[in-house]
Design goal:
Blueprint lengths: L19 H8 L3 H15 L4 E11 L28 H13 L4 E6 L6 H16 L3 E5 L5 H9 L4 E3 L6 H4 L8 H14 L2 E3 L2 E3 L5 H12 L7 E6 L16 H14 L4 E4 L8 H9 L4 E3 L12 H11 L2 E2 L1
Parallel strand pairs: 1-2, 1-9, 1-10, 2-3, 3-4, 4-5, 6-7, 7-8, 8-9
Helix pairs in contact: 1-8, 2-9, 3-4, 5-7, 8-9, 9-10
The protein binds S-adenosylmethionine, 6-(5-methyl-2-OXO-imidazolidin-4-yl)-hexanoic acid and iron/sulfur cluster (SF4).
S-adenosylmethionine binds next to loops.
């Protein structure tokens, strides 16, 4: 297992041909060996103490027609979530300004849509332009997109589009029935073709097994180009969703998933995403050691809680991490 080839088909010097067995072998390494290898790869590509910080805002909340089993925003589940229409531009700009003042470098706006209609996109384009004008990087996650819609987002100055594969192709059908894995790959291809940076990852702790975690990372790493940003979410179990009672995974298995993502996609930012609220500081530190170098910052994710900024600031100080 070399871990790297001189030049892959994408011409980026990174591997895009990972076999499932190789990835499962990485997962099965003794924990210390896996961590050591991940940290070595990390240091070849990044400054070890730097962690990128993004802030999330839900710009349109709930009543989503998709049936994603993990998601509090699906209209298929009774989670008691308050539905909100698209936020007005000034509220979004205000939230972005506050995020910037707290040290975020990227502002990510999420909408609970299956796919935006063209008339839904107009106000989002204005949001992208206004947030970018504040000097922040912009990211949106709006569901599936057509090629034309991605071009319009690019022309508005969008930096990143988040669209997750969520899990392995094999386990996917257990989690979502209203759109296919291929639909997701198609959207990612449109985003890539438009020249927008790709943010794509998935969720750990949905009752999948290790082979599924390996399959998810394989699907991400074998894309024609690695996503620039790879969010690894720990399932936030929300009452009323079908996954509310699923057994949480072994925390070390979550750390292993981060480490394997780091090794497979050495030049990508791996984001320790949802689930930090339920983690201790020690577990988060292990995730950083495994190669996570991005977080969501601010007391709310889209609809669920996240550690408050003071706790994160204190943790960064204790670990000697510099937010970037
Ligand atoms: N509706 C759009 C879509 O699904 O493409 C964008 C928003 S959606 C909330 C973005 C991602 O958040 C999902 O793909 C999923 O990976 C993650 N997510 C949603 N609910 C979650 C939960 N309860 N725990 C962890 N991650 C979650
Ligand atoms: C991602 O992978 N995680 C973020 C972001 N992309 C949009 C969303 C996490 C959502 C967690 C559940 C909630 O707060 O609603
Ligand atoms: Fe809708 Fe996105 Fe939630 Fe799925 S993850 S139900 S598409 S908001």
């Amino acid at each position: 297992m070399s871990g790297a080839v001189a030049n892959g088909p994408a011409g980026d010097g990174l591997r895009h041909d990972w076999q499932r067995e190789e990835i499962e072998a990485l997962f099965a390494e003794p924990f210390m060996d896996l961590m050591y290898r991940a940290q070595q790869v990390h240091r070849e590509h990044f400054m070890p103490g730097e962690v990128q910080v993004s802030t999330l805002l839900s710009i349109k909340t709930g009543a989503c027609p998709e049936d994603c089993a993990y998601c509090p925003q699906s209209a298929h589940h009774k989670t008691g979530l308050e539905v909100e229409r698209l936020l007005p531009l000034d509220e979004v700009v205000e939230a972005a300004r506050a995020a910037k003042a707290r040290g975020a470098s990227r502002f990510c706006m999420g909408a609970a849509w299956r796919q935006p209609r063209d008339k839904d996109l107009e106000p989002v384009l204005e949001m992208v332009q206004a947030v970018k004008a504040l000097g922040l990087e912009t990211c949106v996650t709006l569901g599936m997109l057509t090629a034309e819609q991605t071009r319009r987002l690019r022309d508005a100055g969008l930096d990143y589009y988040n669209h997750n594969l969520d899990t392995s192709p094999e386990f996917y059908g257990e989690i979502i029935s209203t759109r296919t894995y291929q639909d997701r790959l198609d959207t990612l291809a449109h985003v890539r073709e438009a020249g927008i940076h790709v943010c794509s990852g998935g969720i750990v702790g949905m009752g999948e097994d290790r082979a599924d975690r390996a399959g998810m990372l394989q699907a991400l790493a074998n894309l024609p180009r690695h996503p620039e940003s790879v969010p690894i979410n720990l399932l936030v179990r929300v009452e009323g969703t079908p996954l509310a009672e699923v057994e949480p995974p072994d925390p070390f298995e979550f750390v292993r998933t981060i480490a394997v993502a780091r090794i497979l996609m050495p030049a990508s930012h791996v984001r320790l995403s949802a689930g930090r609220e339920a983690m201790g500081d020690e577990l988060q530190a292990l995730c950083f050691l495994a190669g996570a170098n991005s977080i969501f910052y601010g007391e709310k994710l889209l609809t669920t809680p996240n550690p408050d900024a003071d706790r994160d600031r204190a943790l960064f100080e204790r670990l000697g991490i510099t937010p970037v």
